[in-house]
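cron nightly-structures :: item 1 of 1
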Amino acid sequence: MITTVVFDLDDTLYDEIEYCKSGFAFVAEFLANLPEPRPSSMGEGEAPSAERISAVLWEQFTAGNRKKTFNTALEKLRMDYDDKLIGELIEVYRNHKPKITLPQDSRDVLCELSTKYTLALLTDGFLPGQELKVRALGIEKYFKCIVYTEQLGREFWKPSPAGFEKIMQTLGVKPENMAYIADNEKKDFIAPNKLGFLSIQLIRPARIHTDSSAEPDAAAQHTIGEISQLPGLLEKL
């Protein structure tokens, strides 16, 4: 019998792409408002506007450039940069107060399930970025336990079982009484499957991570296309 439901955060409770848009907007404002001398000696004329910078960042991201987004965008904008500036942009992105909202269907599901199950949240990602997301979404009140795997150590990000074991220990729950819902087959379900959780993959239309995995135990036991389907599935199971 399932008594505890553990949620992933990004691309499970909201569309992570909205966080990315928010972060790029903050980075663009930062670059547009840099004091003189601005890093623009590669080009001529005025430095680009925040709107232009944001558009180029988004263009690079949506084209699949996820590792050198800032570098390539600055080159496209003909703005000089060095490692120090790239490091500053990463910090602006990770530390910004995100402009994101919790979708109504996610709020409805959290409200419904919180009256029937104990809820927990397990999320990978850099801090304080993940904490700022949780605050912006206003979801702390739904969870009896929130585990940021970054607090355990970078080596304990998923697919490490450490975060799941932390929740089990904190709540005093056995794995056979727990369900985990997340999005990313490459890392999310390996540990909970091995531990004995019920695993459910939510495939949101705008999700960022779409790759499948050949890793043993990587696939979720069940799949849904909308979070609103979760309460009914849990009832059946």
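cron nightly-structures :: done
The two ends are 8 Å apart (CA to CA).
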